[in-house]
Specification:
mainly alpha; flat
Length: 74
């Protein structure tokens, strides 16, 4: 395994860790929003984030030849 391969793996691991941290933060926000029945400014921001995640998952499913909505892709 060469230096470039090792760096690629490190970059991939860093990207995956960042995505997991972002998903964890989003889930915490969703949990907090579910506890509060009133819509606030931050609630709309979370809705936009969820739309972006949904679009990204739909694009990933399309690239893999899967039917959108059939699988949960992270």
């Amino acid at each position: 395994m060469g230096d470039f391969d090792v760096q690629d793996v490190r970059d991939m691991v860093a990207k995956q860790k960042a995505e997991i941290a972002q998903q964890t933060q989003l889930m915490a926000k969703i949990k907090r929003i579910a506890a509060n029945p009133n819509m606030e400014k931050e609630d709309y921001e979370v809705m936009e984030q969820l739309k972006a995640v949904s679009a990204r998952n739909a694009e990933k499913a399309r690239r893999l030849g899967l039917q959108p909505g059939m699988f949960c892709l992270d």
